[in-house]
Amino acid sequence: MVLIQDIVVNHVGNYFRFKDGKFELNKDSIPTSAPTQFPFNMNNYNDPEQREMNVYHWTPDITNYSDLHQKLYYQLSGLDDLNTENPLVREALKDSYNFWIREVGVDGFRVDTAMYVPKDFWDDFFNGENGVMKQKRNFIAFGEAWLTSPPLDDSAEKEIESYFEHGFNAMLDFPLCEEIRRVLKGGKPTSWLAYRIERRNETLRKGLLVTFIDNHDMERFIRGTDEKTLKMAIAFLMTLPGIPVIYYGTEQSFEETRASMFASGWGSGGRDHFEKGSMYEFIKSAIGFRKNHTATRYGTVKTILSNKEGAGLLVYKIEDEHETLIVVMNTSNDERIRVYSDAFPEVEEVFSTGRKAQMIIQQDSTVFRVPPKSLTVYKVLSETSGKQPPDLNLKLNAEVNVGKEKVIISGETNGKKIFAYVDGMYRAIGDKIKLESGKFSYTLDPYRIGPGKHFVVLKVYGSTPREVLYSKELWFEVSIPIEKLSEVTDPLNDDYGPFGKYEYPTDITFKRQMDIVAAKVERMGPNLILWIKPREITTSWNPPFGFDHVSFQIFLDDPRKDGKSILPFQNYVIEDWDYEIFITGWSSAIFSSKGADERKFGTQLGSPEVLTTDGWIKIVVKGEWLGFPEEFTGWKIYITTWDYDGVENRFRPLEEEPKAYIFGGGKETDPYVMDDLWIKIEK
Description:
Blueprint: E1 4-7, E2 16-19, E3 22-25, H1 48-53, H2 68-73, H3 87-104, E4 108-111, H4 119-127, E5 140-143, H5 155-162, E6 170-172, H6 174-185, H7 190-204, E7 208-211, H8 227-239, E8 243-244, H9 278-291, H10 295-298, E9 300-305, E10 313-319, E11 324-330, E12 336-340, E13 345-352, E14 358-361, E15 366-370, E16 374-385, E17 394-402, E18 407-413, E19 417-422, E20 439-444, H11 446-449, E21 452-461, E22 468-470, E23 474-478, E24 483-489, E25 516-524, E26 527-534, E27 551-557, E28 564-567, E29 572-577, E30 579-583, E31 588-592, E32 604-606, E33 609-613, E34 616-621, E35 636-642, E36 644-645, E37 650-651, E38 675-680
């Protein structure tokens, strides 16, 4: 066991602030008005002597995170920014943290907010006179640079790698964490994750990466999803080189970000949480698997198969000098198949999250048939590959004929039965294909599958169930025009809650972000596109989706279904809803009403695409999440606004009097709805 200490050099607490350009001490700071250690207690700007010591930067809050000067020298969310260029401050910090190494035996540092400190500080802190790295051999220091890259982009990786040149020997792998959440939890294309895990090979040649799926500053991974998805994420982490970290409480399936394990602690529900249940045993087995396979720790990753269009299969190889492993994962809620255009060597299964994948090795291809939300690891045993094919043939007249109103695949076979898998899924639109004298014609309605690239795999049966032949993947692209369904406006200045008495939190970053001005609805085949225009858009916390201090809770009523009436976490009831879209500036999710109640979201189906442009917030909902509706006539949409605290993993509280991050004008049991808007689709 080693001891890692979480350290902060960028800032101290929120003891002072600059309001309208004037310095004032924070009267609400408890239990002290200033740090107690010199020189950090020299924080009164109004005292000329303390001001001249320049222990602090004496700056306001960061308002533009893309401005490097603000990022390095302004206050992060009200936390008093230390002047780390000041030799007095540098020596005090080195002396303080060297004490913990020398007297307590700390083995490493987790360095908070590393990217908000000038890089030359780290050169001195780690390797200068009395530097940290000189205090103990094999000391590890991994930095927090909360940077994430857009899909198929490595801008964050490049910046994170630069810290290896300034004394850090490890960094937290935020790009991987974000991609795991996008893909495994949010249903985004597995090709995004394929890119990310291959890009890590380059970073790992320069330094160590600490991997994780959640931490104390973000929503727990399991929130809004299920244990199958959590197990898949943990297993995925355990297959990859790096230093995997499992956040405490994950083994108890905690949903509260900072809940306590012990009965007397916050959020514990009044009981201890030390059960060795199914999740505990699974994590134990996953760690055991990792310990027994060197490739997971020292190997190189190479992608074999991925999906560019959404959830589905990701197959990759991990190889070191001792072994080769094949990892087969399915991120979707359906069983999927993919066909790889090469025959694999002999393999054996060595680990899985539950139901195991199948690898069907044909003469010149390999078919992966994978259960939903699962991960299976195979070990390559030999180099022999290929099998004698069954006495079956399949001939296609043309690969795919794509028309404006239909997609046709035709051909002939000597098989007895033939089936189709559309996008790797066997469902009603890919039912049994009729054979007449060995010939067939298979027709697809493009509006049923939506725009974008798709593929079909044909499966032919011979005289016995063991005689099976899979075709190659037949790819085609569908283009569908956008159709406007509805557009509505909403009155200004009605963002005061259902009783007209609610007040915004008092922190200066809150403006009128929750006042809805307008909304519109479009369709693209089975896909639904929602546009929301708020009165104001702010980016105080550098949100990746381009807006903050507002969350949108959007409820869809499909007239074909009976759903729920209670709105999760909002103390409010409507007549009926079947799907909830939950959007913040950092995350998006769509849930079915199945399993939802007043304190629980339903079952997560995916993660809608979110984009902020020209004052509008665009939300794209895939038709597969909605059951591929042929039309939206009669659907109702209810849009509500509030704000969500991602750190505490909850909607911001409502009390009688507003506070910095607490709404006023109500009580805890009142509706959490600041503004709302109804839309009914008439056509």
